[in-house]
Amino acid sequence: MMLERMVEIGKKLQESCPDNDCVIYRNLYRIHTEIEEDRKNCKCESSKRALRLEQLRIERKLNDMYFHNYAVREYKKEVLKV
Q1: Is residue 39 within 8 Å of 48, Cβ to Cβ?
Q2: Which of 3, 15, 2 shows the shortest CA–CA distance to 79?
């Protein structure tokens, strides 16, 4: 459920992103989605695992920003009405 909310804000930031720390969140979200595509196309299991570990690392950063970054919290209030 939490990942869905992090994805929702990531998608909104793709559409319009203020010039503040939200840019960092948006960029991390982009990297996360690129890694997901790479994992789908990867045939090597060890590479898939390595990509998943990196994806989890990014998810932790997104989670931290989602809850603790002032700019992201304010953006959520404005755009997502959270």
Answers
A1: yes
A2: 15
Parent domain of 55 = 2-80
23-50 pLDDT tens trace: 999 999 999 999 999 999 999 999 999 9
Q: Which of 19, 4, 16 is nearest to 63 (CA)?
A: 4
Can you tell me the distance from the alpha carbon of 49 to that of 53, in angstroms, rounded to the nearest whole number? 6
According to DSSP, residue 79 is labeled: I
Kindly report the pTM of this predicted structure: 0.87
DSSP H or E run through 49: helix 45-68
